[in-house]
Design brief:
- The protein has helices at residues 7-24, 40-60, 90-94, 111-123, 182-209, 219-225, 230-241, 245-263, 268-274, 280-291, 295-305; strands at residues 70-77, 83-86, 133-139, 143-153, 163-169.
- By secondary structure, the protein is α+β, with helices and mostly antiparallel strands.
- It folds into three domains: 1-58, Orthogonal Bundle (Helicase, Ruva Protein, domain 3); 69-180, 2-Layer Sandwich (Beta-Lactamase); 182-307, Arc Repressor Mutant, subunit A.
- A five-stranded antiparallel sheet has the order 2-1-5-4-3.
- Strand 3 (133-139) and strand 4 (143-153) form a beta hairpin.
- Helix 8 crosses helix 11 (295-305).
- The longest helix is centred in the middle third of the chain and has 28 residues, at 182-209.
- The protein is elongated and about 80 Å long.
- Keywords: DNA-binding, Transcription, Transcription regulation.
- This is AraC family transcriptional regulator.
- One of its GO terms (molecular function) is DNA-binding transcription factor activity.
């Protein structure tokens, strides 16, 4: 007995089909909302969701906890880099035995950390988004408490809050450490920075794959979205993937187009829109550059090859 598909079933199948296309293009964030009917279509939907989740976790999820830092404390500075206030838990964490207000920040930071924070401010003074900087706070007994920090210029008119140093704690934590070999610290920091950069670039790659249907924002805007600077983003992506972000985006959009041309009967005009191109001419020109044929020629040749 043949099963009669109604319009709702057809829409559900179409949604499943779209999810498969997204997975084939590398977007593992697409999810299907199952209905309450508990029929074979729902079963396929659940299995696709599970598969996407497993692939995503394998590629990107191993370090999810490390990417979600918690704020430990905040220290506010005036324009002369003197401490004006700090969050309530700061003295306990940094083992302060007296009030540090009106003291220069140089009394609580190592010389290298002060220079690193100043360099970070100078790198993009107009930006309120800064990258993490490993900072060593001086604690009792001349020990050091290292944690990733962000220094930001405050937007406002209060002269006592010109800058804010925000200290974070990641899931794996870092305990206060005594002064040790600077070489060992340097090697360890480089390894952590390299791992963090790889995670960042994987997230950027996933962002690109999730946006094959549209143009990408500028490098500066991408940097803001991923809390990094455009130079690090541009150079890091090229080094890791051997191509630029925008070239990668273009190639994947065209690969999605080729996939839809081969496996669907959608008109080229609709495929053009699904791949984020403004008009057929732009799509056809770039498609020919990558595949050596226009979209229509590509479809005809593929259809002949399977007959």
């Amino acid at each position: 007995m043949e099963y009669a598909f109604n319009n709702e079933d057809k829409m559900r199948f179409n949604s499943l089909y779209n999810q498969i296309i997204e997975i084939a293009c590398g977007n593992f964030m697409f999810r299907q909302e199952p209905s309450d009917r508990r029929d074979p279509i729902d079963t396929i939907s659940v299995l696709l969701n599970m598969m996407s989740e497993e692939i995503y976790n394998f590629c990107f999820g191993a370090n999810q906890e490390k990417k979600q830092p918690e704020i430990q404390f905040v220290i506010f500075l005036d324009k002369n880099f003197h401490i004006t206030s700090y969050s309530s838990g700061t003295p306990e964490i940094l083992k302060w035995e007296q009030d540090m207000c009106d003291r220069p920040v140089s009394e609580i930071l190592s010389k290298n950390s002060i220079q690193a924070l100043m360099d970070e401010l100078d790198s993009d003074p107009g930006s309120v988004y800064q990258q993490f900087v490993p900072v060593d706070f001086i604690i009792e007994g001349k020990g050091l408490y290292r944690c990733p920090c962000i220094i930001q210029g405050m937007v406002g008119v209060d002269p006592s809050c010109t800058y804010a140093i925000t200290a974070f704690r990641f899931a794996n934590g870092e305990a206060p450490t005594k002064k040790a070999s600077s070489t060992a610290h340097s090697i360890n920091s480089e390894k952590k920075e390299s791992a963090a950069t790889k995670i960042l670039l994987k997230q950027v790659r996933l962002y690109v794959l999730r946006n094959l249907h549209t143009e990408l924002p500028s490098l500066k805007e991408l940097g803001l979205i991923h809390r990094t600077n455009k130079t690090k983003l541009k150079e890091g992506f090229k080094k890791m993937y051997g191509t630029t972000i925008y070239r990668f985006h273009m190639e994947k959009r065209l690969e999605k187009g080729a996939l839809l041309i081969r496996n669907t009967e959608l008109p080229i005009s609709i495929i053009t829109q699904k791949c984020g191109f403004k008009d057929h001419s732009h799509f056809s020109k770039n498609f020919r550059k990558q595949f050596g044929q226009t979209p229509s020629q590509y479809r005809r040749e593929y259809q002949r090859s399977i007959l």
